[in-house]
From TrEMBL:
GO terms for biological process: fructose 6-phosphate metabolic process. It comes from Daucus carota subsp. sativus (Carrot). It is found in: Cytoplasm. This is ATP-dependent 6-phosphofructokinase. Transmembrane segments: none annotated. The record marks 194 as: Important for substrate specificity. The gene is PFK. It holds the Pfam family PFK. GO terms for cellular component: cytoplasm.
């Protein structure tokens, strides 16, 4: 097993071993509260799990961040594997858990809430679980909602979150005071990167006060822009539902001469939903995402391409992510942000629709353009079968970790295995589509659209360091390319 080397950070314990092995571990309650008693895991006596061989995870099990390497690669960064342990650090009767959801809506929120509650009750015999009403500010300004398996039984069939949500409202001292006053000792926080940053600060304050409170996060972003993890819950559902809007746009466009259907999809900083919906649909002629700049006028521009497709096919469908082309719009809202710290965006779908209409009106070419914005319809639907299963695994893994005494972590899927990831790794950057990757090349091949990059832009993009993207193949592309050479 690897031996500890270097400084133990509050948010991450780094262990190194032979052949370049690095474990970026998560904190444990015993890091600051020594001599905590342990208890046999109640799952030992659960008839549902008694027949499962090797159900408990070995304490030394880790999961590699990179699964594809070449022969000279070091073993690289690993994360602690999630799952139930032989011993737990909470007696079931002493657990008083709470769940909070923050930020925007996303398919699967209710499923995660349901499965946390059911895992605590049915696996560990915990009977005190509260829902914090209305996001972070609910800790000190609103009532709590008691949660039992009976109350949450059918909530996975509904969109939204039964315990409410909000943006902002984070006051660390008041939140931890509330946790202390209510004698809560397990906190489950569901939200995006801003929410997880807040969870990290809550953990640090709890640690400073020396409280036996486990803080566990579940990453939520419909845009799939959280790094390290394979994908975020709700993403599959969003892509599937986006097909309905694309199909409607295609029907409208195909039914009229020079018909254009424009569909705006989610993607503030990352274009994963737009890209995957486009690849899945096969009816899209142009996909625009924040990572790939474009221009409207002149040779090789968007207007020229739209005119070319209309002359060839008589219709076309355009998919645009909400964060695409923002640099082309008015600068008036550049510095304005919402309560979560996200930059306020202009409606790029409406803007590009008007620009296309104006362009063809000036060129005396009649078109019929229909603009569809399904954003809030997609956010508000229940999760599909794939996401329901994924939410279940995330929630149960999170509960196993808290019961085993881990804290200051996010539960996430890495290379198909559930892991515990330090908060700082989840919040250090945003996952983005790599437009020099094979997946984006597949999209360009599918739509036959130009890249819209001039020679100078293409060189700059190619020289940029590629961000990691576990959903795609991009993280391992460098290794494969080197091996090929």
């Amino acid at each position: 097993m690897a031996t500890k080397t270097g400084q133990q950070d509050k948010m991450m314990k780094v262990e190194k071993g032979e052949y370049g092995y690095v474990l970026e571990d998560v904190p444990h309650l015993t890091d600051y509260i020594p001599d905590l008693p342990t208890f046999p895991n109640p799952l030992r006596f659960n008839p549902a799990y008694s027949v499962v061989k090797q159900y408990f995870v070995d304490v030394d099990d880790t999961v590699p961040q990179k699964v594809v390497v070449h022969k000279n690669s070091s073993r690289g960064i690993h994360f602690r594997r999630a799952g139930p342990r032989q011993k737990v650090y909470f007696d079931s009767d002493e657990v008083h858990a709470c769940i909070v959801t923050c930020g925007g809506l996303c398919p699967g929120l209710n499923t995660v809430i349901r499965e946390i509650v059911c895992a605590l009750y049915n696996m560990y015999g915990v009977t005190k679980v509260l829902g914090i009403d209305g996001g972070y500010r609910g800790f000190y300004s609103k009532n709590t909602i008691p949660l039992t398996p009976k109350i949450v039984n059918d909530i996975h069939k509904r969109g939204g979150t039964i315990i409410g949500t909000s943006r902002g409202g984070h006051d660390t001292a008041k939140i931890v005071d509330s946790i202390q006053d209510r004698e809560i000792n397990q906190v489950y926080i569901i939200g995006g990167d801003g929410t997880q940053r807040g969870a990290a600060v809550i953990y640090e304050e709890i640690r400073r006060r020396g409280l036996k409170v486990a803080v566990a996060g579940i990453p939520k972003t419909i845009d799939n822009d959280i790094p390290v993890i394979d994908k975020s819950f709700g993403f599959d559902t969003a892509v599937e539902e986006a097909q309905r809007a694309i199909n409607a746009a295609h029907v409208e466009a195909e039914s009229t001469e020079n018909g254009i259907g424009v569909v705006k999809l989610m993607g503030r900083y990352s274009g994963f939903i737009a890209m995957y919906a486009t690849l899945a649909s096969r009816d899209v002629d142009l996909c625009l995402i924040p990572e790939s700049p474009f221009y409207l006028d002149g040779e090789g521009g968007l207007f020229e391409y739209v005119e070319k497709r209309l002359k060839e096919d008589g219709h076309m469908v355009i998919v645009i992510a909400e964060g695409a082309g923002q640099e082309l719009l008015s600068k008036s809202t550049v510095h304005e942000k919402d309560a979560s710290g996200n930059k306020l965006l202009k409606d790029v779908g409406l803007w590009i629709s008007h620009r296309i209409k104006d362009h063809f009106a000036n060129h005396k070419m009649a078109i019929t353009l229909k603009y569809i914005d399904p954003t809030y319809m997609i956010r508000a639907i229940p999760s599909n079968a794939s996401d329901n299963v994924y939410c279940t695994l995330l929630a149960q893994s999170c509960v196993h970790g808290a019961m085993a005494g881990y804290t200051g972590y996010t539960s996430g899927l890495v290379n198909g295995r559930q892991t515990y990831i330090p908060f700082n790794r989840i919040t250090e950057m945003q996952n983005k589509v790599v437009i020099t990757d094979r997946m984006w090349a597949r999209l360009l091949s599918s739509t036959n659209q130009p890249s819209f990059l001039g020679p100078k832009d293409a060189v700059e993009v190619k020289n940029e360091p590629a961000p990691s993207s576990q959903l795609l193949e991009s993280e391992n592309c460098n290794c494969e390319d080197k091996a090929a050479k």
